[in-house]
Specification:
Number of helices: 4
Low-confidence stretches: none
Distance between the termini: 45 Å
Mean pLDDT: 93
Strand content: 35-45%
Shape: globular
Length: 172
């Protein structure tokens, strides 16, 4: 079974500011992972390219988890995850795959982000899928990751609004 999630967030920034100062900014990303998502460590493994030609990025981070016992028996109290992501300069979208260090061959977490301009900034539109191929526990893991993804989106939105205000990135 696959869980599909869709989210929309509004940010009061220009399209160029969204991509440059938020999406591909390593300063923003590191603060997001640490401050909003509770990661204890984040390492940049690959960061090649730019907004004009396309960008490939690979990050590794460590995140404590508050999960059901069945999940913590497999993963422990924290997980190490790699984000494999790519900005497609032609399509102007960001694709990513989250690969857990444990069972990365059985757990598939993917996302796609598009941004639409509106009168007061941009609307970030994201689609995420979570699939776990593990007999007996797959559905439990999928639901936990889906719930964690939704909570992470809320935390990310709140952090991004604060970051935009702090850096004075707003439109107008």
């Amino acid at each position: 079974m696959t869980i599909a999630l869709e989210n929309r967030q509004h940010f009061p920034v220009s399209l160029d500011t969204y991509w440059r100062e938020l999406c591909v900014s390593l300063e923003y990303t590191e603060r997001l992972y640490r401050e909003a998502l509770g990661c204890t460590d984040m390492e940049v493994l690959v960061n090649d390219g730019d907004l004009e030609t396309g960008l490939k990025r690979r990050l590794r981070f460590q995140k404590p988890i508050d999960a059901p016992v069945a999940i913590t028996k497999i993963f422990g109290k924290s997980v190490s995850i790699e984000e494999h992501s790519e900005f497609d300069a032609r399509a102007r979208c960001w694709r990513y795959r989250m690969v857990p260090a444990i069972m990365g061959d059985r757990i598939d977490i993917r996302g796609l982000v598009h941004v639409v301009i509106n009168d007061t900034g941009v609307e970030q539109q994201s689609q995420n899928t979570v699939t776990c191929r593990l007999f007996g526990l797959g559905a439990i893991i999928e639901h936990f990751v889906g719930k964690s993804t939704e909570e992470g989106q809320r935390d990310k939105t709140q952090f991004t609004q604060r970051y935009i205000a702090e850096k004075r990135l707003t439109v107008g």
